[in-house]
Amino acid sequence: xxxxxxxxxxxxxxxxxxxxxxxxxxxxxxxxxxxxxxxxxxxxxxxxxxxxxxxxxxxxxxxxxxxxxxxxxxxxxxxxxxxxxxxxxxxxxxxxxxxxxxxxxxxxxxxxxxxxxxxxxxxxxxxxxxxxxxxxxxxxxxxxxxxxxxxxxxxxxxxxxxxxxxxxxxxxxxxxxxxxxxxxxxxxxxxxxxxxxxxxxxxxxxxxxxxxxxxxxxxxxxxxxxxxxxxxxxxxxxxxxxxxxxxxxxxxxxxxxxxxxxxxxxxxxxxxxxxxxxxxxxxxxxxxxxxxxxxxxxxxxxxxxxxxxxxxxxxxxxxxxxxxxxxxxxxxxxxxxxxxxxxxxxxxxxxxxxxxxxxxxxxxxxxxxxxxxxxxxxxxxxxxxxxxxxxxxxxxxxxxxxxxxxxxxxxxxxxxxxxxxxxxxxxxxxxxxxxxxxxxxxxxxxxxxxxxxxxxxxxxxxxxxxxxxxxxxxxxxxxxxxxxxxxxxxxxxxxxxxxxxxxxxxxxxxxxxxxxxxxxxxxxxxxxxxxxxxxxxxxxxxxxxxxxxxxxxxxxxxxxxxxxxxxxxxxxxxxxxxxxxxxxxxxxxxxxxxxxxxxxxxxxxxxxxxxxxxxxxxxxxxx
Length: 623
Ligand SMILES: [Zn+2]
What we know:
The protein is α+β, with helices and mostly antiparallel strands. The protein has helices at 2-53, 61-64, 68-85, 106-110, 114-125, 129-134, 139-152, 243-253, 258-283, 306-319, 323-334, 352-355, 359-362, 378-383, 395-413, 427-438, 449-460, 469-477, and strands spanning 89-91, 155-174, 180-203, 206-221, 224-239, 340-341, 350-351, 480-482, 488-490, 502-504, 507-510, 517-520, 523-526, 532-534, 539-546, 553-558, 562-569, 571-572, 579-580, 585-588, 599-606, 614-615. The longest helix has 52 residues, at 2-53.
């Protein structure tokens, strides 16, 4: 009993000692963790700030591409959508057609996308792309892709039309002795090609109707009067908008409320665009060897528009900085996509046009928008007299605000006078890097210039991949020359004077006659047969013939930087070996080779075209 009591006392004492000890260790560990926290917190904060500042674009690139499963599955999805897209093509009288062939390329625009299949499976199974990869061969997903592609296949109705080009010349009338006694008009038919135009498209997004009118264009040059008769698109309407998609989602997910259907549809559309732009926007960054390929700017979605080029040229003049430096920034911030929203909460790049009516997206103050990712910078917009909301997607405003920040704020901070910088040589790199780096918002400059420089020249202005702002700027520098007034002129000219309509952009597309998905290594410019084609650059003609490779009658002009290819010509007016200046006529527009109607295929390759370094011609030429 006593022993027991003693034991109890002992136990009690031991307990209280243990308690004290525990309290003490708790106190110490608290103190230690507080110390660690105090030490770590700034590091964590700095790290987070860097994460925010460094363009988020680069974060999700590796995860989106380059897993073998992902690639194989995507290839399969593309194959199935390609099949679905040509499953119901016909003329108004029911005659079946076997390829998408709209002269204006509307059918390729409205075609079912591979990402639609992904988005639909995600909605159906409540799954994610990552979980697709768990099923190594994706057998289940592939089966679902087959069914969805079949269910959502569009149907296209076409009409037949002609593009007829005639040339009317004044020819002398002679009498029996050969004396000129008058002048008469003589008209010859230069070409008369059959082409197809899209009349109706029944897609998940609605039924699109197009109407056309016969139009005649007349143009006179030294040869005579060229007359082109063709059908031109005059009107388009959409009916039953989203009806097919809504019905499909409703049935698949057993939705009852209209509101639910609408929300699901919007999410589906965003998901599909997200997947599409995520993968498309990241794949083009890497070529087959995983090197940055700067020329393929954004594939189908990111041609540099004439407006963007003009805005850059205007800002270049206003701020006395070269257009190629602005282009370096433009590439870094947005890949030249004026309506891109760099950041949504899921870590995806979203096109503003896709979410414009979604207040949740548009009213988030953390978002930056557009070409230079600056227009949600309200105060900086207002300082220049712009309305930040109304002008949010105006390329002129976006570039003006950015250049003002770069030159009038950051350059000034480091006493950089843009007029005194050696832009012509290589001096500009040393002279401007501090200001250019400051634009990025990273401020460890005060702590150590050397560290800031090291960072700038490995992460931002230059990168190991070669797609830093200075890396890209240097590549664009090749396209400009300083003129006598200290301004910049583009070295090149537009190859088809008076015809500026791009009927098929540079990038991945479904080939109009081979109907497989492949890189379209140039732009197609719609122009009537016989229209003049001039050389966009100077150089030496290295090809002037039809070699049966699909380009038909084809001219290739080589200079120190580029090979320029002009395809499908009706006639050629230069010889191999001929040295030609920029602007010299090299032939006439035609439809020779693999072609569905008269147009100029214009391709630019960096260096020898045989190496297939095709770049978007719109990065070199504009009109
Ligand atoms: Zn082409």
